[in-house]
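Hi,

I'm pasting everything inline rather than attaching a file, because the server keeps stripping attachments. The sequence lines come first, and each chain or strand is labelled.
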Amino acid sequence: MCQLLGMNCNTPTDITFSFEGFRRRGGITDHHADGFGIGFFEGKGIRLFHDDKPSTNSPVADLVRDYPIKSENVIAHIRKASQGQTSLANTHPFMREMWGEYWLFAHNGHLIDFAPEQGNFYRAVGCTDSERSFCYILNHLRQQFSEKPDEATLFAAISELTHEIRTYGLFNFMMSNGDCLFAHASTLLHYIVRKAPFGQARLLDNDVMVDFAEVTTPNDKVAVIATLPLTRDETWHQLAVNELVMFRQGDIVRSDKPHTAIYMSVEEGLALARAVGVSC
Amino acid sequence: MCQLLGMNCNTPTDITFSFEGFRRRGGITDHHADGFGIGFFEGKGIRLFHDDKPSTNSPVADLVRDYPIKSENVIAHIRKASQGQTSLANTHPFMREMWGEYWLFAHNGHLIDFAPEQGNFYRAVGCTDSERSFCYILNHLRQQFSEKPDEATLFAAISELTHEIRTYGLFNFMMSNGDCLFAHASTLLHYIVRKAPFGQARLLDNDVMVDFAEVTTPNDKVAVIATLPLTRDETWHQLAVNELVMFRQGDIVRSDKPHTAIYMSVEEGLALARAVGVSC
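And the predicted assembly:
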């Protein structure tokens, strides 16, 4: 199964600590060795790093580790291509411009027979169901709204499109325009909001510890979202199955959590991913 | 003045030698210290590296130097922001998707009062005349052709749009979809096509020499396009003022060279850039 990592904060923050654990899942502590990608918003601009090498031994991942880029919104993805080619064109996150903003999108899951008609505005370049679903969302948003709508309308529209797409299969995704970050769970997606009083945490995938009190100010609020928790010594929360949330400034500000919230165990989620042959 | 660098080849080639000289113009041998960007096509995918640090001391540029990425089409840009902010959103090359392909664009020049109406498909994210001109070209192409037209039609359409935009000022640019590379000169744009028998060359900006015979095969054909020649020991050619060319497989395959071709001297080109306050 591919893995997702996202960050949404109220102040530009570097993601090197979380990324260090996350990248080890690309070949060392797990088997997602078909490339990786990470996109950092800086203001309205984006730094986008893609590599078709496993993230554990990618020079591009080394750069990301050694060059602490501060960002308020980050989306990263490690790819396990159980179907489809390993190629740069299929490497997440994908980027498009809509309403004069860049949008990033990364997906973990598997959509069966998802082949929507070609939209008017956006087309997939590669051959993944993931990029097709991103283009589908953007085409429909752009068709409905020639200008960016207010936040409530935008959230409702993305929630509706997500509901539609997830009938095709597993659809864990993250999407951001550099202002807010949308995260949706079909199976497994965990998050933590770090804020004062900051404590210490140790990576699950690597013997690295950080004392957040030393690298933050009291007003910082940093949400980290990942397929699986990245640290011990901290309590991670989980998105319900079929829940879409919107993060802004390090907090969940909107959710469409189902009335009967179901939380999938890690074992169930991984078993389901194996059963349907998750590709991304 | 900003500087442009492009490469178009018939076989995936690394640009590290040319880039090594080029990047030194970002702060050491010239004054273009407001960030840089480089995009490499790999198949239909793109690796895009942007930095708002000067290219001479950018960790991202170090990565590009140390990680020889082989590509058939590359576009790079060093920015001298004589107007406008230095920000990631204003850093070339810009990228958009059209007809299911990624397109890269970088510009060196200055367009005065170029504020076209908002198009239906593409909008600028940053605040440069460069990105506006790129979106203008794409909007008009997409409006004219819902699918990619044949090569002759595409070249004629880009030639016409270029003719229109250059009435607003200086418009040296490069644009590629990973298959062909368009280059247009308002003032200075030089190129060289390296092919067998390959010789040696020494960078103008750095005491580095390469023997191309050692790093090529006899069938390789590599076009390098740059604002100013990068090497001694080789004969660089120049695009005529107002000439648009299309490179494919390392050769110029189309040109709209004016009947009366005018070639600007380097001194004239630099003086003109200074006079109009070239920004990009």
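Chain B is about 20% helix and 35% strand.

If the labels don't parse on your end, tell me and I'll reformat.
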